[in-house]
Amino acid sequence: HTHTIMYTRTQIDFLNFRACAPAPKATxxxxxxxxxxxxxxxxxxxLACSSLSGATLPSMQNxxxxxxxxxxxxRALNPSLNANATSFCxxxxxxxxxxxxxxxLPLGGRIECDTSLPxxxxxxxxxxxxxxxxxxxxxxxxxxxxxxxxxxxxxxxKSGYNTMIPIPGVSLDIPEIGSVGLDVVIGILGNVxxxxxxxxxxxxxxxxxxxxxxxxxxxxQLPLWILDGTYSFGTICDNRKRQMRAAQxxxxxxxxx
Length: 257
Fold this sequence. Notes:
The protein has helices at residues 88-92, 214-217, 234-247; strands at 3-4, 11-14, 17-20, 27-28, 34-36, 41-42, 48-50, 56-58, 60-61, 100-105, 108-116, 123-131, 138-145, 150-158, 161-174, 178-191, 194-207, 210-212, 224-231. The chain is mainly beta. The longest helix has 14 residues, at 234-247.
């Protein structure tokens, strides 16, 4: 689905928040983070725009997105605390781009995403298991890169981790930029009631020992953030732990003769 904006920075309501396009009469993509120029429509990944004539352009990043007046400000484009949600996915639903899905797990949930990189140079699948109810909170990542068949895994990353990781074996050619590598930005910081989560895809170019990444190479498209916010899982974790204890069979005591 697409939504047409009639004026620069016009705001529209969608999924309880608003997005602002950087150009007049732009088409807002369904992830609400990107838009396409007038006459173009968004691709399924919201990273590219296409016209009926077959022309393609990179999408534009929306600016100064603000929460709807009718929505809770804590569920806007910039994720923040949501202590009243009843499930893991309910906490994250408004933060995820349209190419991601969420499923519940006993100690948290799983985020699955499939997306194209800018200029459609590659396709990447990401599976992120988030266990905020574990002690300590932790995440696990599996990334599948299509062009070179790279499968990269990070298991049981505990809270306190925040870094950028180059994915080995991936070298992609970007028009007018050159050969770049694929990097994952990943982080988990804090505790169950104030947990900062980061997951993004970036592309970096190394020249004479100096690394330049997406924010300067393609600032309207990179990094491609999947998660970047702080969340409160305290209520759902308390409820799940109570349910797990209630489901455990009672401990039988041995009678002394």
